[in-house]
Specification:
- The chain is α/β, with parallel strands linked by helices and 131 residues long.
- It has six helices and five strands.
- It has one domain: Response regulator (Rossmann fold, 3-Layer(aba) Sandwich).
- The protein has a five-stranded parallel sheet with strand order 2-1-3-4-5, sandwiched between helices.
- α2 packs parallel to α3.
- The protein is globular, with a radius of gyration of 13 Å.
- The termini are far apart.
- The protein binds magnesium ion (MG).
- Magnesium ion binds next to loops.
């Protein structure tokens, strides 16, 4: 099995560092990072990852719009996306699914095991079929 490539898109450097640290402990992943949606789209175009963690609130291009744009491309349609939502923002979870995210994790992330489960399920089975 080839090494899985994971893209972490998050403008908050501390949050990004913590998530990357956790992912590295879960397995031997190749991890790439972006600080906004525009960088993320560029990295996906260069070399598509197997999964994306996508913060929603970011400067330049936010996660909502980056997800919409990804889902409008053939390559971007195939990549599982887990949204990183702010716990205080009620309704973001459903909105994230509506724009094309496959799952979500509320920040601050307190339960690493949940992250691992969601990650492994999507890496194994790919995007769930939704109608
Ligand atoms: Mg943010």
């Amino acid at each position: 099995m080839s090494r899985k490539r994971i893209l972490v898109v998050e403008d908050n450097v501390d949050n990004r560092r913590i998530l990357v640290y956790r992912l590295k402990r879960f397995g031997d992943f190749e991890i790439i990072e972006a600080g906004n949606g525009e960088e993320a789209l560029r990295l996906v175009a260069e070399n598509p990852p197997d999964l994306i963690f996508m913060d929603l609130k970011m400067p330049v291009l936010d996660g909502w719009e980056a997800t919409r744009r990804l889902r409008a491309t053939e390559v971007g349609q195939r990549i599982p996306i887990i949204a990183l939502t702010a716990q205080a923002m009620a309704g973001d979870e459903q909105r994230a699914l509506a724009v094309g995210c496959d799952d979500y994790i509320a920040k601050p992330i307190t339960d690493a095991e949940i992250v691992r489960q969601k990650l492994e399920r999507l890496l194994e089975h790919g995007r769930p079929q939704r109608t």
